[in-house]
Amino acid sequence: MGEKKFAIIGCQHNHIEIFIEQMYQLGYSCAGIFEEHDRTLAAVIAEKYEIPLVENKLSLLGETIEIVGCASMNHEKIDVIELCEQYGKSIMVDKPAVVNQDGLARLEVIIERNRIKVGMLLTERFHPAIYTLKQYINQGKLGELVHIGMRKPHKLNASSRPAWFFNKEQCGGILIDLLIHDYDLLRWFTGKEIKSSAGLVGKSVLPEHPTFYNTVNVQVELDDGLLTQLYADWHTPSKSWTWGDGRIFVTGTKGFAELRLSGDPLLGSSTPIMLYASEEEEWSKVDLIQPHATITADFLSFIKGEASLLTHEELIKASRAVLDADAAVLYKLIPSSKESEPHV
């Protein structure tokens, strides 16, 4: 049997390194990287992993290529997915896969035809702390869930962002880009479907980018009436120990859990932490459980028709949830002052 190969078509975000590294771990080699726009990041990644940069994307769709990875501009990922379908190549894309209803409709057609498998880097299901929390929920250690809250602050690093990042039509905006993880986790944690969303997406910075909004606060109702809260922003300070102090809070009738996804320096840790308390157990750190596989290995199992954590259903429903939420929330300009300038 010949060498197992994959390729990268579209390299605009370094999230694609997750896919590259995990494919290497699985014994694959990368045939090349193609990027038709700014190739700065592509060149850095190509040098780091000793991958050739190629001028013709069709050269990466030949018979020897088994799978494609894609981190194109968000609004162009659906084009790459359609191209891969033409050549019979399954594809893993960075999130979000689509940024508007037209893109979703095109993706649904591809999924319905089922000529290829499409994956998306919904990596949080494979985060050890989040995976451990899911096991606790499954085991009934929290009882019936009564509330879920998630916080997802990010560093902006505006000077290093490409122009398309600040354009909502091209990027999708803060809700679609960041909260797609959270909407997926809500469905996974609860086994329930999303019923409705309401909230506010705020803009108080960077007037030179009129469609870039910097905060989002959403209340999500699940189909059993459970209310949850999701929040994200682009205001993690530059001096923070992490790109984003992500937190998840889950309250149940029998227990409470808090995840500190980047650890807590005051607790002497910059690695993920899960804290748990119940009627029987005192507040303490929990030993984390490692997922059964990486997200890339899980996707390869899906391609083979084997059991997998993520399927086309999760891809479509997470994408639809954020698009519906983005249409439902209020977009609002918030008066700003010098004190409220972003941390760049």
Describe the structure in your own words:
The structure is a single chain. The chain has 344 residues and is of the alpha/beta class. It folds into 2 domains: 5-121, NAD(P)-binding Rossmann-like Domain (Rossmann fold, 3-Layer(aba) Sandwich), CATH 3.40.50; 124-291 and 325-333, Dihydrodipicolinate Reductase, domain 2 (2-Layer Sandwich). It contains 9 helices and 14 strands. The protein has helices at residues 16-25, 40-49, 77-86, 101-113, 128-138, 168-171, 173-190, 295-303, 312-328, and strands spanning 5-11, 29-34, 65-71, 90-93, 118-120, 145-153, 194-203, 215-222, 227-233, 247-252, 255-260, 273-278, 284-285, 330-333. The chain has a 9-stranded mixed beta sheet, covered by helices on one side. The protein has a 5-stranded parallel beta sheet with strand order 2-1-3-4-5, with helices on both faces. Helix 4 (101-113) links the parallel strand 4 and strand 5 (118-120). Helix 4 (101-113) runs antiparallel to helix 9. The longest helix is centred in the middle third of the chain and has 18 residues, at 173-190. The chain is globular and about 60 Å long. The N and C termini lie far apart (50 Å). Mean pLDDT is 96; it is low at 339-344.
Offer a few descriptive terms.
alpha/beta; Rossmann fold; Dihydrodipicolinate Reductase, domain 2; 2 domains; nine-stranded mixed sheet; five-stranded parallel sheet; 9 helices; disordered C terminus
Draw up the topology in text.
Layout: E1 5-11, H1 16-25, E2 29-34, H2 40-49, E3 65-71, H3 77-86, E4 90-93, H4 101-113, E5 118-120, H5 128-138, E6 145-153, H6 168-171, H7 173-190, E7 194-203, E8 215-222, E9 227-233, E10 247-252, E11 255-260, E12 273-278, E13 284-285, H8 295-303, H9 312-328, E14 330-333
Parallel strand pairs: 1-2, 1-3, 3-4, 4-5, 6-9, 7-14
Antiparallel strand pairs: 6-10, 7-8, 8-9, 10-11, 11-12, 12-13
Helix pairs in contact: 3-4, 4-9, 7-9
